[in-house]
Amino acid sequence: MTVVESVINGVTVLAPLGTRLDAGGCGEFRRRLEQVLARGQKFIALDLGAVRFMDSTGLAVILSALQGLAGEGRIACAGAGAQVRKLFEVTRLDQGLVSLYSSVDQAVDSLARTQGRR
Amino acid sequence: MPKTRTLTMTIDSSLDNVSLVGNAVRGILENEPGPRHDIPLVELAVCEAVNNAIIHGYDQKEGFPVEVSLSLAKGKLIVTVADRGRGFSTFPDALPKVPAGEDLQNMPLGGWGLRIMGEVMEQVRYSSDAGRNELTMSRAWA
Predict the structure, then answer these.
(1) pTM
(2) Chain B residue with minimal CA distance to A52?
(3) Other CB atoms closer than 10 Å to residue A5's CB: what's the count?
(4) Is the N or C terminus of chain B more exposed, i.e. has fewer CB atoms within 10 Å?
């Protein structure tokens, strides 16, 4: 799976271009997210606009990254479709741990503001 | 009286094949009466069960069958995922709950598949007999 990395307003944006972040296909996404964290990036937007399906393995990648940040940063998800939103809802990770935004711009704005306050 | 209608499909035990099952389940339910907003969750629960069969049952080795049976009858959806790999040594009487969500450092990274199945489906049962393991999930669907 191709994962595109960009920086917008000082916020790292990772965009997996595959349609599935699941047990069979999220290895590259995990590797790229770990690389970003290893470089010390603490405010990361995940552009999930291309992802139609995510399972608990994809979820665990994001949870692991959040635990790695240990409260010193934030991860925001942008453009999640219906199935991905349902996954966050049913696992209740949308209740404080993972911020969901309609667009990458909104996610980046929010992260940039938080980053600027630190 | 409406009769039970059942579709049974078999995939090879590769994680690359799980999407075939998910797409089939979604496609079927999108064309049947039922709560459309829950279709993505049922697709998710079924894929989690198939993942478990491949990852834990067959140690991600390809070349083994995973059979998925979907039945619709009398306002009920029943999905059975069967494999012939290593079964659960003990299957919990009550599935683990989804944690509250605030305590990040104690948030588990594993075991989400069963949690999700428990949240999405009304009943999840497991049995193993003569080398065939069956995980059966059901919920209202009308």
Answers:
(1) 0.94
(2) B40
(3) 14
(4) N
